Amino acid sequence: EADIYQTPRYLVIGTGKKITLECSQTMGHDKMYWYQQDPGMELHLIHYSYGVNSTEKGDLSSESTVSRIRTEHFPLTLESARPSHTSQYLCASSETGGNTEAFFGQGTRLTVV
Amino acid sequence: RKEVEQDPGPFNVPEGATVAFNCTYSNSASQSFFWYRQDCRKEPKLLMSVYSSGNEDGRFTAQLNRASQYISLLIRDSKLSDSATYLCVVIPGWSAGNMLTFGGGTRLMVKP
Questions:
Q1: B21: which residues sit within 8 A by CB, 6+ positions away?
Q2: If A93 and its partner were Cys, which of A24, A25, A79, B65 is the partner (CB 3.0–4.6 Å)?
Q3: What is the pLDDT of residues A16-44, one digit of tens each?
Q4: Contact A99/B87, CB-based, under 8 Å?
Q5: Do A106 and B44 touch (CB under 8 A)?
C-alpha cells in the first residue's frame, strides 16, 4: 500500500468558504502533484512541485493555490469555494528519478453547494 | 495534439476475450512508460511498467514501440473484474521536467 494520505475523503461546503485539502506522504518523494477529475472524465494536472519551496501550475487553469513548506506535505487551498469547484481532487507523489511510478492518495470528493 | 493519446472506448468485450489498447506519445525523447488501472470513483493504481523489451504479468502484456511512438496493453482471457479505465502514463524526459503525463484513459467493460 502506498503511504500517501488525503484528508478529508469527502467534503460538502457552502459557496464562499475557504477550504484546504490536505495531502501527506511518508515516502520521502520530492515530486508531488494535484489532479482534478470529474466523474468518468480524464485527470487534469492543476499543480505540481519538484520539492520544498517549488510549486508550479499545471495544464488546467485552477483558482486553487498550493504550498510546499515540507517535503511530506502538499496542501491545496481554495480561498472562496464555488459550485464549479465540485470535483474529485487526487494527490500523487513520485521519486525524482526518471523511471519511477507515481502513487496516488485516495482522493477528496468535494461538493460545493 | 495531446502529448499522450488514447482511444477513450468503451471497449465492450465478452469474458474470455483478448483485448488490446494502444497509446501514442508525441515526445520521442520519452523515457519511461506505465499502464495504470482506475476503477470507478477510485484512485489510479499502477498496473505495470513498460520496458523496452516488453513486460508480461500473468494475463497482461505491455509492449513499447519506440519507432512508432506507442505503447500497447494486451489482456488475455478477460475477466469481469478487468472492467476499469486503463491509463497510459509517459515520463517525457528531463527536458520536460520528467513530469508524469497521463493519457485520457481507455474504458474497458467485460460482459458475462
A1: B6, B7, B11, B72, B73, B86, B88, B106, B108
A2: A25
A3: 999 999 999 999 999 999 999 998 899 99
A4: no
A5: no
